[in-house]
Design goal:
The chain is α+β, with helices and mostly antiparallel strands. The chain has two domains: about 300 residues, Nucleoside phosphorylase domain (Rossmann fold, 3-Layer(aba) Sandwich), CATH 3.40.50.1580; about 30 residues, no CATH class. It is built from eleven helices and 20 strands. The strands form four sheets. It has a five-stranded mixed barrel with strand order 5-15-14-6-16, surrounded by five helices. Strand 2 and strand 3 form a beta hairpin. The relative contact order is 0.17.
Length: about 425
């Protein structure tokens, strides 16, 4: 936009506002909400302190919005049903619903069910709508025997369960962690830092760079666990009484079971990985490395991007299933329960959010990390047996089962003799 165009638009906008004011004074015409509000959300320095952050006093127009992200339709529907939608904005394939929830400005988007799309949706929301906090509302599977269908786990910490190095010695450890490039906005306070990168090459030293210098680049940080703001965690745990009960039949997948269980909010650790793990022996191996309470698909990208950009965040995961009860699954109930906690958060998040991080001491007593006394192990030992059967679909569409001799031919590759050179 040229200087002349900008100046003309300002003069027209000023004239329009003057006419609107005159009409309001002479004829009693109501002014639109936020007529004097800037299109850009107020910066934290312009907002009152948390002690004076009552939504009714400030008015909706003075508050930066709260972002709400969901993975897919069944998770998004309970949020949209609670919203008063004013408009939608389409950006790079994502539809952002703009409006209010419980009278508070919010922006909602469905990100998709993988870490990469959740990360992208979070980036767009953070940089285009400038929220004071972002919540991820959705479902997850229980990784803790004390967590049941209908409960809600909120993220004191988020770990990437796919970041694993399996060693020849029969043990595993966390790989390098998530790489965060530190800027003035980034906030890694409370995060579990597991290492640092090395200085990257420049045109002047690229020809002799090799593997790089032995020094560490403290602005290139490897994070093993992201810590959410303690304030958001504490607010969420106060919503337990709003969840009500779930039938034992629903929680166990046994239609003959009777009675109900009281649902609760658990402050715990959420593990992200693009896997759905059911065998208890595998969950044991995973949890002995990363002490998690719930498993889902989008959390690391969401936590990473908010950490990178310095935006307050929290994952809110309704529990849809439990490996302790393989027949139990209720994605609709868990989505609704997550939305109940999100609504409570939206109603109680102050205008200025404290980013002081959660610690292990802030987690629920039933959280696996509290019971174990650690969040990430240095090493966790495991055993793996050979694969006894493979079933696949051929190019002609025929289902083929490999066992016995046919399978052993394929397995021969996974011997050291197969890799000998010369």
């Amino acid at each position: 936009m040229s200087i002349q165009e900008s100046s003309l638009r300002r003069r027209l906008a000023t004239a329009s506002l003057a006419v609107t004011l005159l009409a309001a004074l002479l004829f009693g015409i109501a002014l639109p909400a936020g007529a004097f509000a800037s299109a850009r959300p107020a910066s934290p320095s312009q907002l009152p302190s948390p002690h004076h952050a009552r939504h009714a006093r400030l008015g909706a127009a003075a508050l930066a919005p709260i972002g709400i992200i969901d993975a897919f339709g069944a998770e998004e529907a309970p949020i949209l049903a609670e919203m008063h939608v004013r408009q939608h904005v389409d950006i790079d394939g994502f539809r952002f619903w703009v409006g209010t929830l419980a009278g508070v400005p919010v922006v909602n988007v469905a990100s998709g069910e993988v870490d990469e799309t959740a990360e992208l949706a979070t980036y767009i929301l953070d940089t285009r709508f400038h929220p004071r906090a972002v919540l991820f509302s959705g479902t997850a599977g229980a990784q803790n025997a004390a967590v049941h269908v209908g409960d809600v786990v909120v993220s004191g910490f988020v770990v990437d369960k796919s970041s694993i190095h399996y060693y020849l010695g029969g043990y595993q450890d966390g790989y390098s962690g998530e790489e965060v490039g530190i800027t003035r906005s980034s906030d890694i306070r409370g995060d579990s830092v597991v290492g640092y990168g090395t200085p990257l090459p420049t045109p002047s030293d690229a020809s002799s760079y090799g593997y790089g210098p032995s020094t560490a680049d403290k602005k290139w940080v490897f994070v093993g666990a992201f810590a959410a703001p303690e304030q958001l965690l504490a607010i969420a745990t106060k919503a337990s009484s709003l969840l009500g009960t779930t039938t034992v039949a629903d929680a166990t997948g046994n239609p003959k079971a009777t009675g109900t269980i009281a649902n609760k909010v658990v402050a715990g650790v959420i593990g992200q990985a693009d896997v759905w793990t059911e065998p208890l022996s595998w969950i044991e191996a995973q949890n002995m490395l990363y002490q998690t309470d719930a498993e889902e698909n989008e959390g690391s990208g969401f936590a990473f991007m908010n950490t990178q950009l310095g935006v307050a965040w929290l994952l809110v995961r309704g529990i849809s299933d439990s490996v302790w009860y393989p027949n139990a699954y209720d994605g609709l109930l868990s989505s609704k329960h997550a939305a109940v906690v999100v609504r409570y958060l939206v109603q109680h998040i102050p205008a200025v959010v404290s980013k002081a991080p959660a610690t292990l001491a802030d987690l629920s007593r039933s959280a696996n990390a509290v019971r174990a006394g650690y969040l990430i192990a240095k090493r966790a030992y495991f055993t793996v047996s050979s694969v006894p059967k493979v079933v696949y679909v051929s190019r002609s569409g025929r289902t083929v089962t490999l066992t016995g001799t046919a399978l052993k031919k394929l397995e021969q590759e996974y011997t050291y003799a197969a890799g000998r050179i010369g």
